[in-house]
Automatic annotation (TrEMBL):
InterPro entries named among the record's database cross-references: MetalloPept_cat_dom_sf, Peptidase_M43
SUPFAM superfamilies hit by this protein: Metalloproteases ('zincins'), catalytic domain
Protein name listed in UniProt: Zinc metalloprotease
Domain of life: Bacteria
Residues spanning the signal sequence: 1-30
Species, as recorded: Kribbella sindirgiensis
Domain Peptidase M43 pregnancy-associated plasma-A: 207-290
Keywords: Disulfide bond, Hydrolase, Metal-binding, Metalloprotease, Protease, Signal, Zinc
Biological process per Gene Ontology, one example term: proteolysis
Coiled coil: none
Amino acid sequence: MKLNRAARMAAVAALVGAGLSGTQSQASSAADACVSEDSVVQSRGGPREPDLGQVAKDLPASAKNKAKPGFGVTVPVYFHVVTDGAIGALTTSQIVAQIAVLNNTYAGGEGGANTGFRFKLAGVTRTDNATWFYANPGGTGEHSMKQALHTGGPGDLNLYSTTAGDYLGWAYLPEIVTKPGQAYLDGAVIDWESFLGTSTTYAGRYDQGETSTHEVGHWLNLEHTFFGGCNAKGDFVDDTPKEKTATSGCPAGKDTCTAPGLDPIHNYMDYSYDSCYTQFTPGQSQRMADAWLHYRA
């Protein structure tokens, strides 16, 4: 059963208390699509996510089912807090709580599959830079921010806390690491106000930290459950029911394709509210694990 907000915060606090509080702090002195119907996101000037110009595709046959039962990996997370003065200045406890949300959701803590992915905070940078803080994807703001802050290699998750420009967030599919001169773009940019316990801007909508769960899903090669609509391949995962349109809210019984199964509104890769999310499927877990071995291991 999905935890309510109070219960979830208590669960995350328990996870934090269980040993997720260690961080390695690093000072930074760096210088200066997919459409959601949700009105709160639209009021920020755009849809939930941008079109990053990547074309999702199935994994090659040689990469499928390479991850065996019991697959597990711990992903180092470099958390880059970018601010405009005091705006967006996440506390250490908020950062640790967000890592706990990732660990809970990817472990099946809300009822879905245990994906085998765990996340460990490896470093924190803090940069006061308004240009970066308000940057949209594709411009000099994103590029200069990531060229300055990106840390590690394909197996390291760089998570940037900004306004995410006009969006809730974005993340490049892992194929970006194979593109000459573009690997520094790899990572996820997240609206800081979607993190657990930060503000009321997205209260009742995107306020439980699971925008990060969604964007990290893209980083691990998942597409939206509504990608491809009702066609045969859909999101390249067999156990996510076909879905023609993105979900807003949590509309029980939504069913937009004639194929068996209701729309997967509780799946982290739809556009439902955080309170509606509960799961990744075993098929999504397999695709993420296979993609990890193919692109990131």
